[in-house]
Amino acid sequence: MKKLPRDPQNDYSVESATARQHTILEETGVSLSHVSQYSFDPQTLPGNIEAFTGVAQIPIGFAGPLLVNGEHAQGEFYVPMATTEGTLVASYSRGMRLTREAGGITTTVIDDSMQRAPIFVFENARYARDFGLWVTEHFAQIKAIAEETTRAGQLSHIEQYALGKMRWLRFCFTTGDAAGQNMVSKATRHACLWILDQQPTGLEHFSLAANFDTDKKHSQVNALHTRGKRVVAEITLPAALIESVMHTTGAALFKQRQLSNMGAMLAGSVNNGAHFANGITAMFIACGQDVANVAESSAGYVHGELKENGDYYFSVTIPALIVATYGGGTALATQRECLEVLGCYGTGKVHKLAEIVAATVLCGELSLASAIVSDQWVSSHDRLGRNRK
Q1: pLDDT score of 389 more than 60
Q2: What is the average per-residue pLDDT within 190-206?
Q3: Residues 6+ apart with CB under 8 A from 355
Q4: For the chain, what is the mean pLDDT?
Q5: Which end of the chain has a smaller Cβ tally under 10 Å, C or N?
Q6: Phi then psi for 17, rounded to 5 degrees?
Q7: In the chain, what are the domain boundaries?
């Protein structure tokens, strides 16, 4: 097959995209008549994609309004959700109605940290231990050097993990309104080059990453120590409201919660909720987030308590929610519009976005659980989720 054409002088142009579309047609016989339709200037894409050829159009619906009583997100929001799954937007909207009529969802960002975890390998464990002590003693110098590469990133601490003669250093940064993976990689590399210049005794090998930062995948260390934003959404639902809106009871939801906990435990799941990934993925696509981060962001925890009067306390905790309101895909045309609808585009908005995502997840969990216990789950999908064409 022919190589896809590239223009080294200006590859982000309508002409370059059209040339690649023609190559695809010639080589495969498939006309990209829909892929080739887009409304933005390709010149805005450097840094987001290579070999730009067209777009994948994913339908967007708005759920809501969602009422949030956060420290950063306060008021009502229409939530953009890009998905091809019927019933999804309707289900989240139903959960949003329930929580809105209950007075809104309380949201709290309780931690903020992004990591890179280089590994240092020594001749023996004693050298590795002594190196760890040296790192602790010289943290202030390491911090200053790491922060030379970034205006937004700040090194808060370095965790250490030892195995045999190996020692991982988990550099933990705050990253402002960016998700920060690239920022953190650059800063950590810069600091490690300085560390290597000090010629640690007994060092045999160094690598900037060796899978301990668990980028784009879930890990227990992220669940315990945070990656991205650790955020909680919670609400207490009046018994009468649960019955009138969801056609079930707090007692039924609580019983289902205990059964779901057991099922998740038996299956070895990293999430005891129903479908965190649905809401997070739909919002990530609509709002220009790195969708691969759903692997980490969707691993979370649900907790429920039945009150003596029949009211139901419900919370979701997301320990590794990786979101941004600046950089990456957030400035792309449609993604920026969706962020602007939420009032979450630009600097100083990332905690607000994190709170809205967590509140949205809570609504989806409540709606699906209610559909299961009231036997509306299958019927709703049959009515809204079947593409009959």
Answers
A1: no
A2: 98
A3: 68, 70, 71, 72, 73, 107, 108, 109, 231, 233
A4: 95
A5: C
A6: -65, -40
A7: 11-57, 61-111+230-383, 118-207
Quote helix, strand, coil % in the chain, to nearest 5: 40, 20, 35
- With tokens 């008549």, the residue in question is 33
61-111+230-383 CATH pick, 3.90.770.10, 3.60.21.10, 3.40.350.10, 3.40.50.300:
3.90.770.10
In contact, 277 and 285? CB cutoff 8 Å = no
| 61-111+230-383 against 118-207: fold identical | no
Identify the CATH number of the domain defined by range 118-207: 3.30.70.420
Query: What does the buried/exposed string (b/e) look like for 213-222 if buried means 16 or more CB atoms within 10 Å of the residue's CB?
Result: bbbeebbebb
Could you give the residue numbers annotated as active site? 85, 290, 381
**Phi, psi of 314, deg, nearest 5:** -145, 135
pLDDT in tens, 180-196: 999 999 999 999 999 99
pLDDT attached to residue 388:
56
Identity at 317, one-letter amino acid code: T
Against a cut of 0.85, is the pTM above it? Answer: yes
> What distance in Å separates the CA atoms of residue 356 and residue 204, rounded to the nearest whole number?
47
Instruction: Residue count of the chain, please give it.
Output: 389
Q: What is the pLDDT of residues 35-59, one digit of tens each?
A: 999 999 999 999 999 999 999 999 9
For tokens 């976005």, the residue is 353
375: confidence class by pLDDT, cuts 50, 70, 90: low
